[in-house]
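queue> holo job accepted (heme C)
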Amino acid sequence: MPPGAGREEVFYLCQACHSLAIVKQQGLNRESWDETLTWMVEEQEMPEMEPEERTLIVEYLATYYSQKRRR
Ligand code: HEC
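queue> job finished
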């Protein structure tokens, strides 16, 4: 994973239940990542994140794993 703010949070949190490959292969925009996190918390029993932590995670994912980057 590319270095950047939020990398460690994504690494440790998201890997707790599934491989990071499932995260890296997505390529979503900011809004969809946000929805994915909500879904993860509400339906997949992921612990709720602190607001600052959540923002950091969404920023990281949207920066490095967005559709734009894939094109
Ligand atoms: C408490 C467990 C748990 C944690 C923590 C967790 N996930 Fe998940 N996640 C799941 C489960 C279970 C699935 C598979 C759901 C299914 O396909 O039925 C999943 C699936 C996914 C998928 C695939 C969605 C799809 O459309 O196929 C993505 C993307 C994802 N998680 C992202 C994340 C990210 C990003 C994080 C960290 C911020 C995270 N997950 C943390 C449980 C978790």
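queue> The helical segments are 7-14, 21-24, 30-43, 51-64, 67-70.
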